[in-house]
Write a structure and sequence with these properties.
Elements (H helix, E strand, L loop, with lengths): L2 H31 L4 H4 L13 H14 L20 H34 L3 H20 L7 H9 L2 H8 L5 H11 L2 H16 L5
Helix pairs in contact: 1-4, 1-5, 4-5, 4-6, 5-9, 6-7
Length: 210
C-alpha cells in the first residue's frame, strides 16, 4: 500500500462523511419544514458527521473497500421520517426524498465554482485535484440515490409522482429493493450508466473528475 494512496483515500473519506451529513441533514430539515419533527428531535438537522454515522456503512465498509482497491462506497444512518405528520404525506414525502440528492447537487455547484476559480488563478495543482474529488463524491451520492429503487431516494420521488394505484403496487416491491439493486449492478451495466451520467454532468459544469 502506497502512502499517497492512503492520503487519497482519506481525502475521499473526508468528503464522503461530510457530503453524507449534508445529504441526511437535508432530509431532516425538509421533513421538519413539512411538519415532521422526528429527525430534528434526534439532532439530525446537523452538518456534524457524528450525528449521521452508521458504524457499518460509514466506517467499516469504506475502509474495507479501500483495502480491496475499489472506489469508496458506503452510507450514513438513514434519517427517521414519519409521514403521518405531513399535511400531504404522498407529496411531502416526495420532496423530503428529493432533498438529499438535491443537497449534494448544490454541493457540486459550489465546489465546481471553486474549481474554476482555482483553475483560473493557479492553472492546476493539488487544490484542483482535491476539489475534483469532492465534486465526484457528491455527484456519485446524487446520481446513485436518485435511482428509482427501494430504499434509495429515487423510489420516494417516484412514489410521489405515480398515480395512487401504481404507487401502491410499486411500494410492494420495497422488501426486494436491495436484491434488485444488487442484481442490476452485477448482471447489467448499471454502474457504467451511472458513470456516464456523472461524467456528463461534470462535463456540463466544465470540470474534470477523473
Amino acid at each position: 500500500m502506497k502512502w499517497l494512496d492512503f492520503v487519497g483515500f482519506l481525502i475521499q473519506y473526508a468528503f464522503f462523511i461530510f457530503s453524507a451529513a449534508v445529504h441526511e441533514s437535508a432530509h431532516a430539515w425538509s421533513a421538519y419544514k413539512f411538519g415532521d419533527p422526528t429527525a430534528k428531535l434526534q439532532n439530525r438537522i446537523s452538518l456534524n458527521p457524528a450525528h449521521h454515522i452508521d458504524i457499518v456503512g460509514t466506517v467499516i465498509i469504506p475502509f474495507m473497500v479501500f483495502l480491496s482497491g475499489i472506489p469508496i462506497i458506503g452510507w450514513a444512518r438513514p434519517t427517521p421520517v414519519n409521514p403521518n405528520n405531513f399535511a400531504n404525506p404522498k407529496r411531502d414525502s416526495m420532496f423530503v426524498s428529493a432533498a438529499g440528492p438535491l443537497s449534494n447537487l448544490l454541493c457540486v455547484f459550489l465546489l465546481a465554482g471553486l474549481w474554476h476559480i482555482v483553475r483560473i488563478f493557479t492553472g492546476g495543482g493539488v487544490a484542483l485535484s482535491v476539489l475534483g474529488i469532492g465534486i465526484l463524491i457528491n455527484l456519485m451520492l446524487a446520481v446513485f440515490n436518485m435511482l428509482p429503487i427501494h430504499p434509495l431516494d429515487g423510489s420516494g420521488v417516484l412514489e410521489g409522482i405515480l398515480p395512487e394505484t401504481l404507487a401502491r403496487a410499486y411500494a410492494r416491491m420495497r422488501p426486494y429493493g436491495f436484491l434488485i439493486l444488487l442484481g442490476l449492478f452485477y448482471l447489467t451495466g448499471l454502474s457504467s450508466v451511472i458513470w456516464i451520467v456523472i461524467s456528463y454532468i461534470a462535463g456540463l459544469l466544465g470540470v474534470r473528475v477523473n
